[in-house]
C-alpha cells in the first residue's frame, strides 16, 4: 500500500491554520486510498453501505395540506420545512442547468466524487491557509442533506454535519455508492427537492413559489440563476433583503457559468446581467391560525383536526411523533365538514356579530352512522391575538388574565384538553337507554314525587324543577318534562354504573378529578347525580353520543376528516389490533346498544321537542315544544340546564344529523347565564337543523317494536 498521499497530507497540514481545514484536506487525500484499497473496519463499511441503500429510497420532509371538503381548496398547510416534492420533469431545464452551474460544473462527468475538484480544492486551501474552495459535489451535498433530514436523534444530526475527516470520507464513499443506485437525473431531482433556499423555502417548489409566485416549470434563466445562487449561502445572497448587491453578483456568477457550460449564449447573458432582480414574494400559510379570514370559524375545526391527529396511533407512538408526522409527512387531508351546514351553524350561533359576550354559544353537528363532524361553530373569532380581550370574569384567574373573547383558539367545543361544561338533563338519555337495553320498557311507570329520597344513594334527596312534574310518569313523559325524581328512580333500577359505562361507550370521557373519581368502578354505582348531568361534557361528545342513537345504537368515533392521502396519493392506513389494515379516514363504528333500544329512546326523545312519538304519549307538555315546528320534520332531543342555570344545553337530532349546542362562560362556570338565555341553544340547534336540511327529503324515525313499548 502506498503511503505517499498520506505523507503529502502530513507535510501540508502544518500550513493550515485551523483543525477544520486539516480535517477536510486529510479526508480529501485519504479518500482515494480508502476507495481503492477498502481500508477501514468491515463493520463501518457495512454501516455505510446500509445507510446508502436507505438514502436511495428516503424522501425529504414534505408539507401537509389541509383541504376544504371539495378536495381542491387549500385552507392551510402544516410544515416545519415548507416543501412539496416535484418531479424533475416538472422542473424547468433552466433550473436544472443553473444548479449545476452554481454548485457542480462537472456533475455529469464524475461518479459522485470529483477527483479534479478535490485536488483543486486541496491546493487552493493549502495556499490560502483557509477554505477558499470546497470539493463537495451535488451528490455529496445531497448525501449530507439526506443524512441530516433522516436523522432521528441529535447525535445523528451532529454526525451528519460535523466538520471531521471521518464524516467527509463517509460522505464521499456514500456519494460514490449512491450513484451506483441512482441515475444523475434522480440525484439532481432529489437535490433540488432537498436544498434550502432561504425564507423557509425547502426545495425548488417552495423556492419558486415564495420568491417568484410561480411553479418550478415556469422559471426563466434569470430566475433560475437567482435561486441557484442562494444555495451556497441563503442569508448572504437573499434577494428579498433591502440591498440586492450580493444577490445580483451571485446571480451573475451563475449566469456566467451557464454560458461557459454552453447552456446560454453570451449575448443573452450579457443582457440578463443588466436586469434587476424582480421578486413576487409569497408567504405560505402555516397551521390553523392561517385559515383564510372568510372561513375564520373553520379554524376551530382545523384545531380539532390537530388534536384528533395527535391521538391517532397510526401516526406515531406519542403526541410529539404524530404532530411531527403531520408537519413533515406530506399528507393531503380533506375536512369532513359540510359548507352548507357550517354556514347554517355559524349563522345561528352568531359567529359574525355576537363575539363580544363572556358567554360562549357553540354548536357541533355530527353525522349519524359515520361520526363525521359536519359543522363546528362558536361565537368567537379564531385568533391568537388575545392581548386586547377584556379581563377574565373569573376572580380567581389573576389580575392580568385575559378572557377567551372575542378572540381565542381554545377548543371550546371539544376535542382538546378542556373539561367542557356541565350538561344537565341531557344526561338523562344514558340511564334511559341503559334501562331500555337491559329489557325495561317505555311504559315503565313510576309515581314521581316532587322530592325523592334515595336510600341507594345514601339518603340523597333531589327534587324536580316544578311541582307540575309530580305524578305518574313513563319514559315518554318523564323525558319530555325532564322529571328528575323519575330518572333518579330509573337509574336506581338499572344501576348507575351501567349508565356511566354506557356513556363511556358512547364516547364520553371524564376530564376532572371529581368526575374520574365518581366514575371509578368502586364508586360509579353510587353516582346518583350522574343522571342530572353534574359531569362535564363537550358539545362534540354529546352530538356524537346522540348521533349513535339516531343510527339505531351504532356508535361511530368522532371524525374531522373525509379523506387522508399519503404523499404518493394512496389512502393513509393503519393496522387494527387484530392485524387488519384499514384506512385512517374510514368511519370506525360499533354497535353499543340494540337497534330496538335506540329506537325506543328516540321515541321518548321526540317528547321534549313537541314532536309526536310513534307509540306513546308525552303527558301534555314538554321542555322545548317549539323545536318540531321550527325544524319542520321529525326531530328528537333533550334540553339541559344546571343549578342556577350556569349553563344551558340542547341536543337534537333527525335521522340525518345530530347537533349539540351550549351556552356557558368557559372562563368562570359560576357566572350563570340565567334562565333568560336558556332558549339560545334550543334555537341554535333548531334553526341549524332546519337550514341544513332545507330541500332534503323528509325522513321519519323507525318506530320501536311493541315488545319494548310494553
TrEMBL record:
<keyword id="KW-0645">Protease</keyword>
<dbReference type="InterPro" id="IPR050396">
    <property type="entry name" value="Glycosyltr_51/Transpeptidase"/>
</dbReference>
<feature type="domain" description="Penicillin-binding protein transpeptidase">
    <location>
        <begin position="363"/>
        <end position="667"/>
    </location>
</feature>
<keyword id="KW-0133">Cell shape</keyword>
<comment type="similarity">
    <text>In the C-terminal section; belongs to the transpeptidase family.</text>
</comment>
<keyword id="KW-0573">Peptidoglycan synthesis</keyword>
<keyword id="KW-0121">Carboxypeptidase</keyword>
<dbReference type="GO" id="GO:0030288">
    <property type="term" value="C:outer membrane-bounded periplasmic space"/>
</dbReference>
<keyword id="KW-1133">Transmembrane helix</keyword>
<dbReference type="InterPro" id="IPR036950">
    <property type="entry name" value="PBP_transglycosylase"/>
</dbReference>
<keyword id="KW-0808">Transferase</keyword>
<dbReference type="GO" id="GO:0006508">
    <property type="term" value="P:proteolysis"/>
</dbReference>
<comment type="similarity">
    <text>In the N-terminal section; belongs to the glycosyltransferase 51 family.</text>
</comment>
<keyword id="KW-0472">Membrane</keyword>
<dbReference type="Pfam" id="PF00905">
    <property type="entry name" value="Transpeptidase"/>
</dbReference>
<dbReference type="InterPro" id="IPR001264">
    <property type="entry name" value="Glyco_trans_51"/>
</dbReference>
<dbReference type="InterPro" id="IPR001460">
    <property type="entry name" value="PCN-bd_Tpept"/>
</dbReference>
<dbReference type="InterPro" id="IPR012338">
    <property type="entry name" value="Beta-lactam/transpept-like"/>
</dbReference>
<feature type="domain" description="Glycosyl transferase family 51">
    <location>
        <begin position="75"/>
        <end position="258"/>
    </location>
</feature>
<dbReference type="GO" id="GO:0009252">
    <property type="term" value="P:peptidoglycan biosynthetic process"/>
</dbReference>
<feature type="transmembrane region" description="Helical">
    <location>
        <begin position="12"/>
        <end position="34"/>
    </location>
</feature>
<protein>
    <submittedName>
        <fullName>Penicillin-binding protein</fullName>
    </submittedName>
</protein>
<keyword id="KW-0378">Hydrolase</keyword>
<dbReference type="GO" id="GO:0009002">
    <property type="term" value="F:serine-type D-Ala-D-Ala carboxypeptidase activity"/>
</dbReference>
<dbReference type="GO" id="GO:0008955">
    <property type="term" value="F:peptidoglycan glycosyltransferase activity"/>
</dbReference>
<keyword id="KW-0511">Multifunctional enzyme</keyword>
<dbReference type="GO" id="GO:0008658">
    <property type="term" value="F:penicillin binding"/>
</dbReference>
<dbReference type="GO" id="GO:0071555">
    <property type="term" value="P:cell wall organization"/>
</dbReference>
<keyword id="KW-0328">Glycosyltransferase</keyword>
<dbReference type="GO" id="GO:0008360">
    <property type="term" value="P:regulation of cell shape"/>
</dbReference>
<keyword id="KW-0961">Cell wall biogenesis/degradation</keyword>
<dbReference type="InterPro" id="IPR023346">
    <property type="entry name" value="Lysozyme-like_dom_sf"/>
</dbReference>
<keyword id="KW-0812">Transmembrane</keyword>
<dbReference type="Pfam" id="PF00912">
    <property type="entry name" value="Transgly"/>
</dbReference>
